[in-house]
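Revision sheet: structure tokens.
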Amino acid sequence: MRRIKSRDTSIELALRRALWRMGVRYRKNDKRLPGSPDIAITRFRIAVFCDGEFWHGENWEARKPKLQNNRDYWIAKIERNMRRDLEIDRRLVCLGWTVIRFWGGEIRKNLPSCVEAVREAMFQAQLDAFDDAEPFDVT
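Predicted:
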């Protein structure tokens, strides 16, 4: 497990490169935020996580019965990861952040749609900021 990377994974790098080419500036693994999001677009308060399918429990109910080696350990670990992910999402939302989570396979197979999802979140954040702005007197 020492070789398992928690940052700068291939899926994270692919998404970061695509966002950078699009002109999006971000912080990577920002420790000031709960969960140290893989990509934090601070200007729009968007936290992006690039999750591995096994470690974060994608399709967990179908995958869980297939575990054979050290079954009790892996089930407890992955379910703990899933609970932690939900808690981090809740804390970030309470702080006013938008949380986006992508599965690794989703990034590998359809990177443009992932980039588009981030762009839409940025656009929505701009609209929300405009709606929250103080009205001004034009007279």
